[in-house]
Amino acid sequence: MESGLKALWVLSAVLLVSNWQHWTYGKRVPQVPCYFVFGDSLFDNGNNNYLDKSAKVNYLPYGIDFDTGASGRCSNGLNIADTIAEQLGFDRYISDFGIGSCTNFLDGVNYGWNGAGILDLTGYLTVIADHMPLITKTLYYSGELFTMNAQLFNHNITVSRISKILGSEEVARKYLSQCIYVSDMGHNDYLNNYFLDDYNSSQLYTPEEFAQLLIETYETQLEVSPT
Fold this sequence. Notes:
Layout: H1 2-20, E1 23-24, E2 27-28, E3 35-39, H2 80-88, H3 132-139, H4 148-166, H5 169-176, E4 180-184, H6 187-194, H7 201-204, H8 207-222
Parallel strand pairs: 3-4
Antiparallel strand pairs: 1-2
C-alpha cells in the first residue's frame, strides 16, 4: 500500500513538472511554434462552411457542446485537431484556411475538409483526373474540391505568405521545420469512391490494388516539399 502511494506521488509530481514547463508567468507556452492540419471530416474545423453544397455542418445538432455552437466541425464539440492543439499548449484553436482568408499563419493552419480524400476524384464525380492540372486552381477556391492535393496546394500559399512575414524563404523553412504536421486521409476514398456504384474504381482495382494505389499516392503526397 505504501509503495503504491509513493508511486502515485511520483507520477503526480512528474505530471505537474511536465505541465509546468509549458506555462510562463501564468501564460501557457505552446510546445511548438505552429501546427498544420491536413485531413477530412475528422479534422475539418470550418473549411466546409465555404461550400455551396449540402456538405456543410454549420447547423444544429452539430456543435451542440461547442462554446460558440455550430462552427463547421463535424462533431458535437471539439474535434481531433482541436484536442491536439490544446495538448500542444495553444491558447486558441488553429484557424481554418477557408478560401485563403486565414491571417494567423504563424500559429499554423487547418486545411482539413469534409469529404476530402487522397485521390482527386474522391467525392467529386465531374472532375476528370487527366485534366486536373488545368482546372484545379479554379476548383480549389470554389468550395467544390479540397482533396489532399488541394490542401497541399493551399499549404504552398501559406508557406509563401510566411516567407513574406518572416522576410525570407530560408528563415521561413527553419521556422516551419520546428512545427508539427498532422495528416489523416483515406476514409473517403473508400466511402465516397470505391464503395459507390457511381465510381468504377471497384471495377478497375481489386481491394488489394486499390489499397496499394492509395498507399503509393499518399506516400508521394507526404514527401512533397513546399515550392
